[in-house]
Amino acid sequence: MALARNAPNDLDAFWMPFTANRQFKKNPRMFVAARDMHYTTADGRQVLDGTAGLWCCNAGHCRPKITEAIQKQAAELDYAPAFQMGHPVAFELANRIIDIAPKGIEHVFYTNSGSESVETALKIAIAYHRARGEGTRTRLIGRERGYHGVNFGGISVGGIVNNRKFFGSLLTGVDHLPHTHLAENAFSKGQPEHGATLADDLERIVALHGAETIAAVIVEPMAGSTGVLLPPKGYLEKLRAITRKHGILLIFDEVITGFGRLGSAFAAQHFDVLPDMMTTAKGLTNGVIPMGAVLTTAAVHDAFMQGPEHMIELFHGYTYSGNPIAAACGIATLETYKEEGLFERACELEGYWQDALHSLKGTRHVIDIRNMGLIGAVELEGIPGEPTRRAFTAFLKAYEKGILIRTTGDIIAMSPPLIISKAQIDQLIGTLGEVLRSLD
Ligand SMILES: Cc1ncc(COP(=O)(O)O)c(C=O)c1O
Predict the structure, then answer these.
(1) How far is the CA of 282 from the centre of ligand 1 (A)?
(2) How far is the CA of 255 from the centre of ligand 1 (A)?
(3) 149: exposed, middle or buried (C-beta count within 10 Å: 0-12, 13-18, 19+)?
(4) How far apart are CA 150 and CA 116, in angstroms?
(5) CA dist., res. 277 & res. 297, Å (int)
(6) Which residue from 244, 194, 183 is spatially nearest to 216, judged by alpha carbons?
(7) Structure confidence at residue 7 as a pLDDT band (50, 70, 90)
(8) From its phi and psi, is residue 62 left (phi > 0), alpha (psi between -120 and 50) or beta?
(9) 219-241 confidence digits (pLDDT tens)
(10) Residue ranges per structural domain of the chain
(11) Which of 152, 194, 209, 211 would bridge 246 by S-S if both were Cys, CB 3.0 to 4.6 A apart?
């Protein structure tokens, strides 16, 4: 029997995440179907997906291979206990991930989301030092304007004031590097020129606390959620050199940049900087089934492999770590990326995407445009005294005109599925231009 899902009659019970609930429920925006580059709305309109859902559907929507893999797995082995038991699909996926990961990354710890990947990586970092006899290394360093999900570790190392200020004292022993978003880099194409020296601030933090108290630095190689903030040339290399010099682990949060967004499997390869751990989620399963993974070097993993063999080495894990259906979904997703050459496609389209985005320079209210791979941001001048309103109005108008964009503050961010065509890039940017010109 078909469920009456297209037209819910009561919107009250569902408390929606990161949403203006009252505003939404007065005028709901509902998607009821999706295929490839498009969503279908409840009123039957097609909306071009300019954001890959929430930066996650890198292969587009309802891809047959992925759908079939989930159906088959659900009918064969729906669940197996994640602790002290295994099933082949999770092992297979781990190997496939390592196949495309940077050389030197050798192990996979499964989670169910980006937020959980971050918590897992932070815990592994602290426990790693303890396992090696350096139990004083407990401090964690994040960065202003960083987004690392919504759990306590993630918001503590994260740098978004609204995500932090309502939630008490957070984790103690956390410091923040300055963000890398500099006015002099406005309208940069690709990596900006200025700001590598911002990484030197880590030396200041080390001098303040002593390296022997610091466990890890976590940064997004390219900050997505706070508006596509790119690493200045040389910045990540410097961060790597300073962390290595002081025995501090470097964690790249690749929840957005992983799985092709910048034209390589991971940003670590794109920038040729090897971290000690990488946090992933989203594109791992094309956003279809919740799953995340922390990827580590052999050195991090091996530090735990000591003591009696019957003892659990890491007291951490989730009921759904490596869930069979999620793992089957992950394998089918990675196969889709490979068979369709989607990471290469992102690379090939980068120039076209960049030109299209930067054609908006000079459009009303636009104060900056930045891009890399198949990701881009258009920053608007905010309405005085009403931050976020202008971009949010643009989002609503864009939706009415048939394109899905995302806003954060007064920044419009776009990250289309990697299957987007040039004509669809023209449609996305052309429609956005119309929307911007129509704003007050
Ligand atoms: C860099 C980064 N880390 C962590 C997260 C959190 O992921 P999730 O929403 O799956 O918990 C996100 C989500 O956008 C992210 O962009």
Answers:
(1) 8
(2) 6
(3) buried
(4) 9
(5) 7
(6) 244
(7) low
(8) left
(9) 999 999 999 999 999 999 999 99
(10) 21-59+341-438, 67-339
(11) 211
Using the predicted structure, report yes or no on whether residue 8 has a pLDDT greater than 80: no
> Which residue among 157, 252, 256 is best mutated to probe the pocket of ligand 1, counting the most ligand atoms within 8 A of its Cβ?
256
Judge residue 143's burial from the number of C-beta atoms within 10 Å of its C-beta, 0-12 exposed, 13-18 middle, 19 or more buried: buried
For domain 67-339, give the CATH number: 3.40.640.10
* 102-156: pLDDT as tens digits: 999 999 999 999 999 999 999 999 999 999 999 999 999 999 999 999 999 999 9
Which ligand 1 atom sits nearest the alpha carbon of residue 292? 10
Band (pLDDT 50/70/90 cuts) for residue 1 is very low
28: left (phi over 0), alpha (psi -120 to 50) or beta: beta
- Per DSSP bridges, beta strands 249-253 and 277-280 are parallel
> What SS3 class is residue 393?
helix
Ligand 1 atom with minimal separation from the 290 CA = 10
What is residue 5's predicted lDDT score, i.e. its pLDDT? 59
Q: From ligand 1's centre to the CA of 226, what distance in Å?
A: 11
- What's the pLDDT score for residue 424? 98
Q: How far apart are the first and last CA of the chain?
A: 48
The torsion angles phi and psi of 127, rounded to 5 degrees, stand at -65, -30
Ligand 1 pocket check: which of 55, 225, 278, 289 to mutate, most ligand atoms within 8 Å of Cβ? Answer: 225
Assigned token pair, 73: 């797995």
Helices 324-339 and 342-358: crossing angle, nearest 10°? 70
Give the position, in ligand 1's atom list, of the atom nearest the Cα of 114.
7
CA distance 322 to 86: 9
420 C-alpha to ligand 1 centroid (Å):
23
In three-state secondary structure terms, 396 is: helix
The set of protein residues with a Cβ atom below 6 angstroms from ligand 1 is 113-115, 118, 147-149, 220, 224-225, 253, 255-256, 281
223 DSSP 8-state letter: B
Superfamily, domain 21-59+341-438: Aspartate Aminotransferase, domain 1 (3.90.1150.10)
Residue indicated by tokens 């259906």: 325
Whether the predicted pLDDT of 66 surpasses 60 = yes
